[in-house]
Design goal:
Length: about 575
C-alpha cells in the first residue's frame, strides 16, 4: 500500500488498452515542452565523476560486491537483497562474471541479467565484471553491445587468467573479512589457501560452536580495521565483498556511520539507474507499489515524461504476460503465501480478512501475519499509518484497498515520512484511494458521488470493460507535487485515466496469476477468487481540495449508510 465532469451525469468512456504506436507516455505534439530540473541532479552523472566529487568533499562512500546465484529462487532472493541493501546508500555495486554460468546470456542467473536487474529495477549504479580470458574479440564486442543496450555503462574488464594448482602463489592472509561462522571460515581458508592469523585463531577456537559469537567478533574486527583505514585520510571509500550476505555487512556499515538510516528520496517513487531514464520524473500513481512492473512495461520507450505527463492518447505500455520473470515474482514462497492468504477460503469474507490483516499487521486466524498482497509485495509504507484506522474499517466491509495516499499541504521536503526531493522545499499531495469492491457497493457509490462533484474525481472499471469516469476530457490529474528553491514545480505523480485502463488489466490479472493459482483448479478457494475477479470493480477516487480534511472517508461512509438503509432508497440503478 503506498506509500493508497460529466455535466449532470455519467459518461461512458472507451480506451484502447491494447497499446499504440507512441513510444513514450505522451503524444508527439507535447514532446517539445521544456524539461523540469530534476530533484536529483546527479542521476545521469558518470560513476567516476560521483567518486571524484565524494572524494574531494570528504564525503566517504561504500560499495558492495555480489556474485550471480545458482538457482532461479536464488535470483529472486538476491534481488530482494539488492532492495534492502540499496536502502543504505551504496555508491555502486559490483556483479562478478562467472564463466561457468553462461554469464552473458538472458538466463535469470547470468551475470548480465543480475547486473541489468540491479540497474533497471533496483535503481543501483552497477559495475559488471567481464572476464576476457579465452574469449574472441567478436564475443567480447557482443557482450559490450548487449550491456550497453541493457543500460549497463560501467564495465570492469578483467584478464582472468586460468591458474593451475602448481602456479598458485600463496601469501600470508593479512586482510580480515567479516567472519560469519566457524564452518564458513574453514571453507574460505580451504578455497583461498591462506593462513588465519594466530591472534584470531586464539579468539575463535573457544567459541567455534557459537556462530553468533564468531559473527560478532568478525564484525568487531572489520569495524576496527575499517576505522583505521578511514581515519588515515588516505581512503575515501570502502568496497565490501558481501558473499551475497547482508546482516554482517550492514552492521559494520552502521557502526562505521556509513549506512544511511534515513535515506533521502529524490522522487516519491523508486527511480531506475538506466541512463536513458535519467530525466524521467513523472509516473502514474497506479504502479506505486509495483515499480518493477512499470519499468518492465515501459522499457521499450524511446523517451520518458519529464516535467509533466502530457496529454497522451495512446501510451504504448508493453504487455505483462511474463508473471514468472524473477524480478516480478513475489519474494514469498507458495507455502508462505498460502499461510498468509489462506490455505482454504470459505467465502468473500475470508478475502476481506486477508486485506484487513495486512492493514493492521495482526495475525490471521491461522496465526500468521499478512506481510504482502498481490498488489503490494512489501509491508505498508510509513505514510499509510496516517490512514490506518480508516483503511481497517473499510476493508472489513469489502472495500479492498490496494493503493492510497493522505492529503499533504506544504510539508517540508525533509519530512521523514512524506518528504522527497532536495532540502528547502515543500511537498503537497491530494488524497487518493484505490480499491476493489462489489457491484452492489458501486451502485450505492454512484448515488453518493453525485453530491461530491466536482471536488472528487472518480474512475470505475471492471474486467468486462465497463468504464465510468468524471475526469474532464480524460486529462491527467497531478496528485503529488513539490516546490523547491530556484526550480519549477515538480509533479512526479499523476492519476491518468488512459493509463488506468492499462493498469486495470494488470490489477485484475493479479487476482488470478498470484492468488487463484495457489489453489487447485475448480477448488472452492479458487472459485471465490475468480468470482471477485469476474464481478468486482476497480475504483480510484481523488479529493482535489487538498488543504481541507480528506473527504474520501466520508464518501465511503455515505456509501455504507445508503447500503444499510431500506432497499427502496438505493433503488435499482446498476452499473
Amino acid at each position: 500500500m503506498v506509500n493508497q465532469r460529466v455535466d449532470g451525469g455519467w459518461q461512458a468512456c472507451r480506451s484502447d488498452s491494447s497499446g499504440g504506436s507512441n513510444s513514450s507516455g505522451e503524444s508527439s505534439k507535447d514532446s517539445s515542452r521544456c524539461s523540469t530540473p530534476l530533484p536529483d541532479s546527479d542521476r545521469g552523472d558518470r560513476l567516476r565523476d560521483k567518486m571524484r566529487r565524494r572524494t574531494e568533499s570528504g564525503d566517504r562512500w561504500f560499495s558492495l560486491e555480489f556474485f550471480p546465484p545458482r538457482t532461479a529462487s536464488g535470483a529472486v532472493n538476491l534481488i530482494s537483497r539488492f532492495d534492502r541493501m540499496g536502502a543504505g546508500g551504496p555508491l555502486f555495486i559490483d556483479v562478478t562474471w562467472h564463466p561457468a554460468g553462461d554469464p552473458g546470456s538472458d538466463k535469470e542467473t547470468s551475470s548480465m541479467m543480475i547486473a541489468s536487474t540491479a540497474v533497471n529495477y533496483c535503481g543501483l549504479e552497477s559495475v559488471l565484471h567481464l572476464t576476457c580470458c579465452n574469449q574472441t574479440r567478436e564475443k567480447i564486442t557482443g557482450y559490450l553491445a548487449k550491456a550497453k543496450h541493457l543500460g549497463l555503462k560501467n564495465i570492469m574488464a578483467l584478464r582472468g587468467d586460468l591458474i593451475s594448482v602448481n602456479q598458485l602463489v600463496v601469501s600470508r592472509w593479512t586482510c580480515p573479512f567479516v567472519l560469519q561462522g566457524y564452518q564458513s571460515l574453514r571453507q574460505l581458508v580451504k578455497l583461498s589457501k591462506l593462513e588465519v592469523p594466530e591472534d584470531i585463531t586464539k579468539v575463535i577456537e573457544p567459541i567455534k560452536d557459537n556462530d553468533a559469537a564468531i559473527r560478532n567478533y568478525g564484525i568487531h574486527l572489520a569495524v576496527e580495521m575499517c576505522s583505521i583505514l578511514l581515519e588515515s585520510g588516505n581512503v575515501p571509500g570502502l568496497h565490501f565483498y558481501t558473499l551475497n550476505r547482508e546482516v554482517a555487512t550492514m552492521e559494520v556499515l552502521r557502526q562505521l556511520g556509513l549506512w544511511l538510516e534515513d535515506p533521502r528520496r529524490p522522487l516519491p517513487w523508486a527511480v531506475s539507474a538506466n541512463p536513458k531514464r535519467k530525466v524521467e520524473d513523472v509516473r502514474p500513481i497506479f504502479w506505486a507499489s509495483r515499480p518493477k512492473s512499470y519499468i518492465y512495461r515501459t522499457q521499450e520507450w524511446d523517451e520518458f515524461p519529464n516535467g509533466r505527463w502530457g496529454n497522451s492518447s495512446s501510451p504504448a505500455f508493453g504487455e505483462l504476460n511474463d508473471y514468472y520473470l524473477f524480478y516480478l515474482k513475489s519474494k514469498s514462497s507458495k507455502e508462505a503465501l498460502l499461510q498468509m492468504w489462506g490455505e482454504e477460503l470459505k467465502n468473500e469474507q475470508s478475502v476481506f480478512e486477508v486485506f484487513t490483516c495486512y492493514i493492521t499487521a495482526q495475525p490471521n486466524q491461522s496465526g500468521h501475519k499478512v506481510m504482502c498482497l498481490p498488489w503490494n509485495d512489501d509491508p505498508l509504507a510509513p505514510e499509510t499509518n496516517f490512514l490506518k484506522d480508516q483503511l481497517e474499517k473499510v476493508n472489513r466491509r469489502g472495500v479492498l484497498t490496494i493503493n492510497s495516499q493522505p492529503n499533504i499541504n506544504g510539508k517540508p521536503s525533509t519530512d521523514p515520512i512524506v518528504g522527497w526531493g532536495p532540502a528547502g522545499g515543500y511537498v503537497f499531495q491530494k488524497a487518493y484511494l484505490e480499491f476493489f469492491t462489489s457491484s452492489e457497493n458501486v451502485t450505492a457509490l454512484l448515488k453518493v458521488l453525485k453530491k461530491y462533484e466536482p471536488r472528487v474525481n472518480y474512475h470505475i472499471v471492471n474486467v468486462h470493460e465497463q468504464n465510468l469516469t468524471n475526469a474532464a476530457d480524460m486529462r491527467p490529474n497531478a496528485v503529488t507535487w513539490g516546490i523547491f528553491p530556484g526550480r519549477e514545480i515538480v509533479q512526479p505523480t499523476v492519476v491518468d485515466p488512459v493509463s488506468f485502463m492499462f493498469w486495470k488489466d494488470e490489477a485484475f490479472a493479479l487476482w488470478i496469476e498470484q492468488w487463484a493459482k495457489l489453489y487447485e483448479d475448480e477448488s472452492p478457494s479458487r472459485m471465490i477468487i475468480k468470482y471477485i475477479h469476474d464481478n468486482y470493480f476497480l475504483v480510484n477516487l481523488v479529493d482535489n481540495d487538498f488543504p481541507l480534511e480528506n473527504c474520501l472517508w466520508q464518501v465511503i461512509d455515505d456509501m455504507f449508510e445508503l447500503l444499510d438503509a431500506p432497499p427502496e432508497l438505493l433503488g435499482t440503478e446498476t452499473t
